[in-house]
Amino acid sequence: MELIINHNSSQPIYEQIVGQIKDMVMTGELRPGDPITSVRVLAKELRIGVLTVQKAYDRLQREQVIESVVGKGTFVSDRNLARIEEEKDLLIEEKARDLIELSRRYGLSRAELIRFIELLYDQDEGEKEITDG
Predict the structure, then answer these.
(1) Around Cβ 127, how many Cβ atoms within 10 Å?
(2) Are 26 and 71 contacting, i.e. CB atoms less than 8 angstroms apart?
(3) I need a labelling partner for 73 at 20 to 30 A (CA). Which of 26, 102, 119, 125 fits?
(4) 17-23 long-range contacts, Cβ below 8 Å, gap at least 24?
(5) Domain range annotation of the chain
(6) Domain 13-79, CATH
(7) From CA 100, how far away is CA 115, in angstroms rounded?
(8) Which of 14, 3, 21, 6 lies closest to 50 in space, CA to CA?
(9) Which pLDDT does position 75 carry in this prediction?
(10) Rounded to an integer, what distance in angstroms lies between the CA atom of residue 89 and that of residue 132?
C-alpha cells in the first residue's frame, strides 16, 4: 500500500490518507480482507505523526472501509462494499455531469461528445497496452 502525501495541499494529511485508501478500495487495488499497514508503520513510512494516521484510520473504521481485529491487525472490510460502489458511481456521475455541462457550453452535440469520449477511451486503452506489454 503506497500512499503519497502532499504537504503543500490545503487538504489535511489525514483526509489525503482517507481519500487514497478509499480510492484503492474503489479501484480494486485493495480488496476485502487485505491487510492495511499498521498506524505506526505508516506514520514512519510517511514521516508524519501517529495521531494523524490514527485519525484517518478512525474515520475509515467509522465509514466501515477498514476494520481492526485485536491481535491480528487492520484489514479492508467487506461490510460496506455497497456503499463504496455507490460512492464510486456518484463520483463518476459528478464528473460526467461536469463534462456534459462543459461540452454544452462549447457547443458540442451529444454525438460529438460521445465520439470524443470513445476516441479518448480507445486512445487510452492503446497507450495502456503499450505500457503493459
Answers:
(1) 10
(2) no
(3) 26
(4) 17/42, 17/46, 17/52, 17/53, 17/56, 18/56, 18/59, 18/60, 21/56, 21/60, 21/65, 21/66, 22/60, 22/63, 22/65, 22/84, 22/87
(5) 13-79, 82-132
(6) 1.10.10.10
(7) 13
(8) 14
(9) 96
(10) 27
How many CB atoms within 10 Å of residue 66?
24
Cell reading at 117: 469520449
Under a CB-based contact definition with an 8 Å cutoff, are residues 76 and 30 in contact?
yes
What secondary structure letter does DSSP report for 34? Answer: -
Report if pTM > 0.85.
no
Mean pLDDT per 10-residue segment, the chain (133 residues): 92 96 92 94 96 97 92 90 83 94 95 92 73 60
